[in-house]
Amino acid sequence: MACAYPVRIRAQYSQLDLPRESQSATVVQRIGTTDISVAYSRPGVKDRTIWGEVVPYGEVWRMGANENTVLTTPNAITVEGQTLPAGSYGLHAIPTRDKWTIILSKDHTAWGSFFYKPENDALRADVTPRPGPMTELVTFEFADVTADGTTLLLRWEKLEVPVRIGVDVHGIVLTGLDAQLRGLGAFGWEAWYEAAHYCHAEGIAPERAMPWVDRSIARQPNFENQTLKATMLEEQGRTAEATTLRKAMIDGATNGQLNTYAYQLAQQGELDEAVRMFELNVKRHPEDPNAHDSLGEGYLMAGKKDAAIKAFKKSLSMDPPPGVKANSIKCLKKLGVDTSLWEADKG
Question: Number of helices and strands (H, E) in the chain?
């Protein structure tokens, strides 16, 4: 029996999950702890004149195809210097030949720009388009990524449109730390140490860093958190307290901790103190070939060639593990020492 009503299937109205001509894509960039994403559909050039025809000048365009192009950020960011609160936004533009107006709309669920209303604007910013490489499909990408920002680029046909995005990374992290330090991790020493270490390394919030490292030490004093506090005390000019703390810290340090501390001192340019710590570690652990190998590296960094050669040879005489052996041989070669005897020994 024939159907009583004509059935017309149009892909753009289909409620089924079927392939689309303009396929969807998502691009994500993390800045600090903020994941910024853009979800969009990708129409093609297909030998058409895009700018001024397919995309008319002076009219609102959804910057893609199908539904809204959507920018989502879990934290407040800046777009071309203007603040955009956390949320999801419809991403539109009004293109002209020389200037584009970028629009972030609070209405991100509508179909394209057909239902766009200016009263829903969260932000507008003017940007300058520029020539770009031929790009067949609409493409969004994040470029010029820095520690606290990125440039969102729209590429299509032979044009690219840059939109600068900024993120208050430190402010967001500090706000997040307040919440994290009220969780389960706050019962251990590690979370308080990590929070204090982040602030110290980034040079921010010293008024928070010291209480946080003190809480870490109160939960479990150890080499890591006491090292951090001693460094912070020295930076505050409280050298007597720092010296006392460092002595206690070094007195209780394990082989690995003292070795790591010596390398940290070397990285900070304190080579004399680094060598002193390497020597102390060898004195405490004379049977450890790695301690002698590390001492050799300390001497090498300090320009003490003969002492370095002696330390590397001592390490090799102690049947070191493969990694330690390989490092001692490599360093001796740099120093011009014939290493064929140790290389011939496959044991």
Answer: 11, 10
CB 33 within 8 A of CB 169: yes
Rounded to two decimals, what is the model's pTM? Answer: 0.76
What helix, strand, coil percent values describe the chain, rounded to 5?
40, 25, 35
Element (H, E) at 181: none
The total of other beta-carbon atoms located within 10 Å of residue 134's CB is 10
Pick from 251, 200, 62: nearest CA to 261: 251
The boundaries of every CATH 1.25.40.10 domain in the chain are: 170-344
- CA 312 vs. chain centroid, Å, equals 37
DSSP letters for 215-263: HHHHH---HHHHHHHHHHHHHTT-HHHHHHHHHHHHHT--HHHHHHHHH
CATH 1.25.40.70 fits domain 170-344: no
Cβ atoms of 131 and 115 closer than 8 Å: no
Phi, psi for residue 262 in degrees, rounded to 5:
-65, -45
Please give the biggest Cα pair distance in the chain.
101
Please give the structure tokens belonging to residue 64. 């893609």
Q: What is the pLDDT along the chain (347 residues), one digit of tens a residue?
A: 333 333 333 445 556 776 777 788 999 999 999 999 999 999 999 999 999 999 999 999 999 998 899 999 999 999 999 999 999 999 999 999 999 999 999 999 988 788 899 999 999 999 999 999 999 999 999 999 999 999 999 999 999 999 999 999 999 999 999 889 999 989 999 999 999 999 999 999 999 999 999 999 999 998 899 999 999 999 999 999 999 999 999 998 999 999 999 999 999 899 999 999 999 999 999 999 999 999 999 999 999 999 999 999 999 999 999 999 999 999 999 999 999 989 877 65
Strands (E), the chain: 23-31, 34-42, 70-73, 77-79, 82-84, 87-95, 100-105, 121-127, 130-146, 149-166
Token look-up 């691009």 returns: 27
